[in-house]
Amino acid sequence: MNAFTSQPLRTLEDIVHFEQEMPLEQRVSARSVFDLFVASAQRYPERIALTLVMTGDDDEQPRRVTYRELLGLIRRAANLFHHLAGPRPGVAYMLPSLIETHATLWGAETAGFAVPINFLLQAEHVADLIQASGASVLVALGPHPQLDIWEKALQVKALLPQLQLIRVSPPSTPVSDAALDFLPALMLQPDDHLVFGQAGCDDDVAAYFHTGGTTGVPKLVQHSHRNQITAAFGGVVLMHMEAGNVGLNGFPLFHVAGTIINGLSPFMCGAEVVMLSPAGFRNPAMVRRYWKLVQRYRATRIGGVPTVVGALCDVPLDGADLSSVQTGGCGAASVPRAVVERFEEHTGRPLHEVLGMTETAGITCIDPALGQRTLGSVGFRLPYTQLVIRRLKADGSLGDACAPQEIGVLTVSGPTVSRGYLNPEQNKGVFVDGMLNSGDLAYTDAEGRVYIAGRAKDLIIRSGHNIDPLMIEGVMSKHPAVTMAAAVSQPDSYAGELPVCYVSLREGAVVTQAELHAYAQEHIAERPAWPKHFYVIPAIPLTGVGKIFKPQLRADATQRLVQQMIEEKWGTGVARVEASEGGKRGMRVHVTLPPNLGHLRPQLEAVLADYLFELTIVLV
């Protein structure tokens, strides 16, 4: 058994009994994230904490770091940040998955607070996030032949001249006047103590994680030490992590999935984290060689986001020994039934779902690793947290608790829930009196298991009929030609919204519109859910962690609709149409007409008047 429980937690009843035995503070004495690393270094000083795989080749000698060494790196980094920026410094970073990234993240949380940044964001958005957070230090990857992180960091520095820039580069990299080199500066700091006294703890801010897509300005979510410790603890006891376990981590370290359940949770119990190259699952070699890496490192936990798990199922095992594997995990997005079935057939191991949100420090519910895998369920709430499914009223407010099997909005409260977004204006309707309105539509069964029925904002409402996009996606993902499917709403003047489905195809596959429609009508029981259109595209847009980026698809569906209407009525090339999410009606449409066609403006306004989007028409 692991260090925190003598009995495995399999059911909600087990979780309730576990809570009644003793309070959380007695089970976990750590008051800071730093305390967790100190405790693990004392218990398991020479155990491997981190392994960094670069190529996955059979003869590779990866870099490995023990718990004692990792604690030393964290102390050095914390001391460096304090030396450069004073008490409670804010440290942002734009880094791929490196040993140095872990030192930066946990060192920043020890000395002050971290601001992990998705390096795919535009420089202007990065600067906005850093400025909003109050961070005074930016750690970034130095010049790289394939990545533009360093160039982007210099752009951010130009926008924020007072920012202290630190560069992570190989020792042979020429010295730069623009930045301090991380590794030499790190080695000047002591690794056996903190020079500034006590680390941040309890309700102090440990990090600001941004949430949102790769366009638009994301929101900054506050994580306290208590938030992260409680979430990580929940991951340990429900995923039944133990010292000596090995997990493969292909998530980026600017995302809560990579840092909490695949980082802090295993570090809390003395397990090993194998980092699948600096690029993680974005590196095709890691996907191709995944099963050999499972065999080589004797992985006990495997998995990823649904898109990655689906891709792994297409990789032959080629005789790889999976006997070390205890369970698979999948999260960050709802998992199509077809993906679960393919994984379990491919590996012979159960795939347990995890529901995580940045606003709950990365973990909300887990289907327990030692419990009976329940297809379609994200399992149970974490210990010491509260979860209620509430009725959604006609005015959009939340009502009483739902009965089992009744769909409502999932709300969470307890020590994992963030105090809110850094910008309090963004909290309205999301954080209410310590409760989080998740925006997820969900229901429970008689045993208290949670099932996600879609995102409230992703719900397709056709003439009052609520359509779950996951139902469409689950069916269309099983089509033999389809590798991925994404269902979204398209505006309609009569029904308000109609379902449309984007699909990407397997290599070499060919499929007609008629075949897709026929397949949908045969396998989707609800006639209103039959997609009005299918759009075959080369690749479904994804966020940096592999979630389907539906705002882009909803905007594309709207643009296609309006463009087609204009061309059918007035001809090709008459107007340029752009669409984007936002505004009071949820979608903005911008139509550009040439000056000589200005007379069409009133007609166009009349044609589009009944659609639920904001319309702007300009003459250029």
Write the topology of this structure:
Blueprint: H1 12-21, H2 24-27, H3 33-43, E1 48-53, E2 63-66, H4 67-85, E3 90-94, H5 99-111, E4 113-116, H6 123-133, E5 137-141, H7 149-159, E6 164-168, E7 180-181, H8 182-187, E8 205-211, E9 219-224, H9 225-238, E10 246-249, H10 256-269, E11 272-276, H11 284-288, H12 290-297, E12 301-304, H13 306-313, E13 327-330, H14 337-347, E14 351-355, E15 365-366, E16 377-381, E17 386-392, E18 398-401, E19 408-413, E20 431-432, E21 435-444, E22 450-455, E23 460-462, E24 465-467, H15 469-476, E25 482-492, E26 496-505, H16 513-523, E27 533-536, H17 550-570, E28 576-581, E29 587-593, H18 601-607, E30 614-619
Parallel strand pairs: 1-11, 3-4, 3-5, 5-6, 6-7, 10-11, 12-13, 13-14, 26-27, 29-30
Antiparallel strand pairs: 1-2, 8-9, 14-15, 15-16, 16-22, 17-18, 17-19, 19-21, 20-21, 21-22, 23-24, 25-26, 28-29
Helix pairs in contact: 3-4, 3-10, 4-5, 6-7, 9-10, 13-14
